[in-house]
């Protein structure tokens, strides 16, 4: 390990995409007991991971990405602005840690995709005519449902 503090900062980066990264300092992990596979080991060892990412306190991601990430996180976003992910699919801590981190990075990658802006278009003349024709036909059908005239009147 080098004594250069700039190298330490680089190693604490976790790449999200080519241009984006998060810092390990923005992550925290808690280990809890998991349900699922593991036999009696489940009752003894805390292998499930609760990964917390401080989205509100993060300074490396742009604000628009944070907003989209918060929306994508949904109920996984805490009141303190943290994304909380729980991983307990695997029997080992290491695999659950990797799974939780990969899910977080996938969520951030998805949030990094800017939504395509909608371009307003006008309806074509043909579509207007078809719509009006359909309305006329529908009106005719409804008109024919009226009461029939009595023969004695």
Automatic annotation (TrEMBL):
Molecular function (Gene Ontology), one example: peptidyl-tRNA hydrolase activity
The protein's Enzyme Commission number: 3.1.1.29
Basic residues bias locations: 116-153
Renumbered residue ranges of the record's region Disordered: 112-153
Pfam families: RF-1 (PF00472)
Keywords from the named record: Hydrolase
Domain Prokaryotic-type class I peptide chain release factors span(s) in chain numbering: 33-49
SUPFAM superfamilies: Peptidyl-tRNA hydrolase domain-like
InterPro entries reported in the protein's UniProt record: Pep_chain_release_fac_I
Domain of life: Bacteria
Enzyme class: hydrolase
NCBIfam families: PRK09256.1
UniProt-recorded name of the protein: Alternative ribosome rescue aminoacyl-tRNA hydrolase ArfB
Organism: Roseibium salinum
